[in-house]
Amino acid sequence: MVVLILCCVTSASLAYPPPDGDRAAQFRRLPNWTGLWISSAWKLGISGRPIGDEKELRANLQLLKAPPYNPEWTRRYEAGIRDTAMMAQRNATLKVCTRSFPALMEAAWQFQIATLPEETLLVFENGQVRHIYTDGRPHPSGDDIWPTALGDSIGRWDGDTLVIDTIARDSSEPLTPRAWVSLLSDGARFTERLHRTDDNTLEDQLTIDDPLTLTHPWTVTLRFTRVTEMNRMIPTNCAENDRNPVIDGKMLLTTPQ
After folding, report:
1. Is the CA virtual torsion 172, 174, 180, 181 positive or negative?
2. Rounded to the nearest 5°, which phi and psi values hold at 188?
3. Pairing mode, strands 250-251 and 246-247
4. How far apart are CA 172 and CA 209, in angstroms?
5. Coil, strand, or helix at residue 113?
6. Kind and range of the H or E run holding 251
7. Degrees (nearest 5) of the Cα angle 245, 241, 49?
8. C-alpha closest to that of 60 among 43, 79, 36, 37
9. Residue 229 half-sphere exposure, CB side, CA atoms within 13 Å?
10. Of residues 253 and 126, which shows the higher confidence score?
């Protein structure tokens, strides 16, 4: 029995990782997406806020648009929109250190992309990482999969386009902050086609398919701009940001001590 186990382990180790020559060829086939990227929706001024303030931001954020809900979910959505007190309270106390998918893709955080033969990683400055497995493995099934904030993502390369399939997203999360009543079902499926359109622009065609809530698949186009003012990522930790405490339902600004 011991001999058999050692034999199997040795055989597996020879198959993975592949020989250096093969691995070098695998890397050469991958696109070059190095550098820092940020959502094009966030055209920030020196204050760190959008130049056109909240009005411009709301016009640029694609996930703030009303989803093409069926009649039942349209009634739920419109009832939520009419609850102005709730919406104002949520917006006034908005302090999000992490975001769920797909909101993370439109966040104001810079990210880097690591393209490996086995997976592509999107590493965000707030510490969140999207793992997109491209080695042919399927989604987990049965008891091996459960809803998470970022869901489970697998992908394949179509030329220089990364086609991503994401399922098992936590349905209790809104599609994005500020759109608190934009919800989907547990069965929502997300397909992305991520590719570079020029040296300084990435484009992500995101299609959301959820037969329980939507009348038809919903496609939005997200764009990302290369960050040229910085040559490294600076991690952030908003959990330690004590300058914006929320007291009595209001977010305050304190001066440095």
Report:
1. negative
2. -60, 140
3. antiparallel
4. 17
5. strand
6. strand 250-251
7. 90
8. 43
9. 7
10. 126
Q: Is residue 207 helix, strand or coil?
A: strand
Nearest CA among 172, 170, 177 for reference residue 87: 177
Alpha-helix residue ranges (DSSP H) falling in 31-180:
53-60, 71-82, 84-92
In the chain, where the domains are located: 20-251
Mean pLDDT confidence for 229-249: 71
Three-state DSSP class for residue 250: strand
Q: Which residue in this structure is represented by tokens 């020879």?
A: 14
- In the block, tokens 């997203």 appear at 169
User: 20-251: what fold?
Assistant: Lipocalin (2.40.128)
Overall size of the chain counted in residues: 257
For residue 45, name the pLDDT band (cuts at 50, 70, 90). Answer: low
Q: Hey, what amino acid is at 145?
A: I
- The alpha carbon dihedral of 149, 180, 223, 229 has a sign of negative
Q: What is the predicted pLDDT for the residue at 76?
A: 94
pLDDT digits (tens, 9 = 90+) for 138-193: 999 999 999 999 999 999 999 999 999 999 999 999 998 888 899 999 999 999 99
230 burial via Cβ count (<10 Å: 0-12, 13-18, 19+) = exposed
CB 123 within 8 A of CB 158: no
The answer to whether 241 and 94 are in contact (CB under 8 A) is: no
Q: Is the dihedral of CA 133, 137, 138, 141 positive or negative?
A: negative
Residues in contact with 22: Cβ distance below 8 Å, sequence separation at least 6, in sequence order: none
